[in-house]
Amino acid sequence: KARVLDWKVCKSAFSYTAGLAMVQRTAEADVVRLRKYEVPIKRVARNLCLDPALIAAIISQESRAGLLLDNGWDQGRHKYGLMQLGGQQHHPYGMWDSEEHINQCSTILVLAINEVRARHPTWTWDQQLR
Question: What confidence score (pLDDT) does residue 23 get?
């Protein structure tokens, strides 16, 4: 099941009603494609102590579960894979839709979250995650 963002977050980027409807439509459309990656997402999430819904949401948002990709690349050929790893910052591991690649991107995500947590220890988990 998709989790809905706090209304304060949504209204800063777009109107709540339109934004919520858009997020729900996108998630519903991507669920079928995301099922293909359910096992690797869950395995990576378990190994990294992440919520699998977070990984799935990033995959949906970044590449529409692969729909927007051409051989794993975005249109400008700057980002690669389901989670859209920046090719200039990181050398991609594995095929664009492999568990190895999902693990690489999710590990980068965990490191980034931990950096925010270290810099802002008094923030709530939701604030740190944003």
Answer: 72
